[in-house]
Amino acid sequence: MPSSHTSSPDDGIFTARLIRTANPSRPIAQAIAVREGKVLAVGTLEECKEWGIDNVDTRFADKVLTAGFVEAHAHSMSGMYSSIPYVGWFGRHMPDGTWIEGIRSTSALVERLRTIAESTPAGQSIIVAGFDPIYMDSERLDRFHLDEATSHHPVFVFHASAHLATVNSYLLDKYDITSASQAPGVGRQQDGTPNGELREPAAMALARDEFRSIGRTVTSHETFTHFGAAMRNAGITTVADLGNMFHSNEDSRNAIAHITRDAQFPIRVVSTSRITGGIAEAKDAVQKIFASRQYEHEKLFFPIVKLVLDGSIQGFTAVLQWPGYFSGEDHGLFLTTPEQVVDILRPFHEAKIGIHCHCNGDATSEVFINAIETLLAEHSWLDHRHTITHAQLITAAQMRRARNLGMVANFFINHMFFWGDQHRHVTVGPDRAQHLNPCGTADRIGLNYSIHTDAPVTPPGHLHTMWAAVNRVTPTGVVLGESERISIDRAFHAATIDAAYQLHLDHLVGSLEVGKYADMTVLEDDPYEVDSHAIRDIGVWGTVLGGIPQPRPTSLI
């Protein structure tokens, strides 16, 4: 019997070569009907037309539609390369679609900085981002290398991990950073004098103006707008901006609500507060999150918070259990005092605010799992979904405990490519490198997980994360952890519905089901059908957000 509903001008049906829904009840379809920005029906064209809709959009007839990709760990600073020069090892597309070649040597970095200095007034800071010394065959980047570029400007090289920076002598002198400086994380030469490497926020913050400048850049309207474009260009429809301060005051809440509410803004954002300070500050932060939720709308949500426990494996600041790092100096830092973690997290857990905790090292995974076990014993919450994010060196024993506690993991699977060779030969060695980001073991144990890019640490895009999870191949062609490979079907669900689950949004996004937002990723080919090594090369036309097509710039299509 035909539907009794009256069709409206906004109703429509999209057809495609194939639709992958991430809904196990109906995993594939040929058409999807949209009403009021939501999924009305998924199935054949004839089934969708039974709702009385005659408006059929065939623009995607030769393309593949999937449930919109959900990125559960990225950062709005992904848009910063619209204003801060990129100097990373791998070439990448900027938010406006332009391509920037990578910097492949310390000398090339010095030359790039020298060129920037020539057009920069003396005394004005030079800030660049994306560099990572671990790729270089020469000695680790230090202030003396940067001094070769200029002795007339403060230079601040923000590393790709966002956990370290290297500065020149001019900047050290500007802030009187000397052998007497007590801040943890100040890199030193054998004689105790600073070598220019500043590890983690406490040390980077010594470079007050430059560090604040990055902070202002990543929270600007321009950066956030470019963040939305970068995610759209990668096929992302919902993204967690994991760890910002937009909840901190009314002006910040108003600003992000205004930006995301704009009809041209192309993604849904889970704006995630970073837990900073101690126990008293945590209680205050809970109230600020509740206040932020008054600003929520269909493209803005505040369901979770983030705690950072350690640093970066490739930066040697992640905290590892025995036997520690394979080579290089261990600079592992707990960024939150382990003994205070339970007390800091208690107000959020009791308020039923989901917690995502940055744990690169296995020592920090242990601290977080222990804390959640204590909190659950004190205060039952059967649907908390607390997430071990990154979870790169998590052990099988830790995963079994996490599963039993109802926790989930979000694996930084892109490391298998971007730093796989370095992990194999430098940071963790041949054995543990096989186990990094253990998706296969998680499946065998039954621990639910998603996969992420941590953009801008690696470029946004789930075609690459799926490719990395399926293949686990390094730039030199080495397969790291063959038994940890997963199927494309499992990777697709990790990039859609399982990521939405971690964000407490699986009732709204993550799969194409009746009543959810009509969010889709538009691909030129089917990830299930191409050769597994070609998954990351599939073209992205753009997205559909709430039934509205959002194409990439034509230069990228």
Describe the protein's architecture and organization.
This protein has 557 residues and is α/β, with parallel strands linked by helices. It is 31% helix and 21% strand. It contains 19 helices and 24 strands. Strands 6, 14, 15, 16, 17, 18, 19, 20 and 21 form a 9-stranded parallel β-sheet that branches. Strands 1, 2, 3, 4, 5, 22, 23 and 24 form an 8-stranded mixed β-sheet that branches. It is globular. The two termini are 42 Å apart. The mean pLDDT is 95.
Can you tag this structure with a few keywords?
alpha/beta; globular; eight-stranded mixed sheet; 31% helix; nine-stranded parallel sheet; 24 strands; 557 residues; 19 helices
Give a brief rundown of this model:
The protein has 557 residues and is an alpha/beta fold.
Low-confidence stretches: none
Give a count of the beta strands, DSSP E runs of length 2 or more: 24
Proportion of residues in helical segments: 25-40%
Secondary structural class: alpha/beta
How is the main sheet built? 9 strands, parallel
Mean pLDDT: 95
How many helices does DSSP assign?
19
Strand residue percentage = 15-25%
Distance between the termini: 42 Å
Using the alpha-carbon principal axes, give the shape. Answer: globular
Round the Cα radius of gyration to an integer and report it.
Answer: 23 Å
